[in-house]
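U., I forgot to send this yesterday:
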Amino acid sequence: MQRVDQEMEDLITSVGAETFIKYYKIYQAHKDLKDNSSIRIAFKENGEKWSPSTINTKASGGKRIFVKGYEQDVLHRIINNSIKLNEDIINQAKDYLILCIEDEVIKSLPIDIETEKIRLIKLRIQQSLFRKMVVKHWEKCAITKCENQSILIASHIKPWKDSDNLEKLDPFNGILLSPIYDKLFDKYLISFDDNGNILISDELTNNDLVALNVKKTDKLNFHKLEKRHLDYLIHHRNIFFSKNEI
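Result:
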């Protein structure tokens, strides 16, 4: 397993994450060809200023990722190690990963399966991918520090129904919460400021807070709260304030 991981890392390094995503479809379309000339032509048409040895490395390495069947793992790594990468590259990687998983699942389905079932399967795939990314980021409940991930909920900050396709799958549009906090957050009975401090609706009495074990000093794990969460939190707070007339 370590040898496979090292081989993937070597391929990602040799090709480069941005190059792999930029030429993803080219690599995919030409993975079964012995010759790399079509890939090199695509590089040239896009004005890449690489040396002949670099061109050959990037052409053969990108294609090899597909030949070895590593593309899903590589996409996961690109998405989950996104600090230094352009946001457009990350979003494109997410789109490719969803297509990868959808294609894999749909190929395994009976030919006569209804279109609505396929739509629901795709929806579950997207939700599952979102949860995995949110769990990977927060690791435990963002407030209580509960580590039992099986009971934690990957809550959308900006609701699924209000989000565009990229926002639905953006892990920074998510908080990992225990069930009580998830329900309160979903009902806009709590929200959070930009420092992660809890905001509590007047609808929750002191008795409610005691019964639910919710404290006015609660706050999100500051070490996990990033700038990319803040626009989503603003959206949630605006609704929270409007519903609570604060």
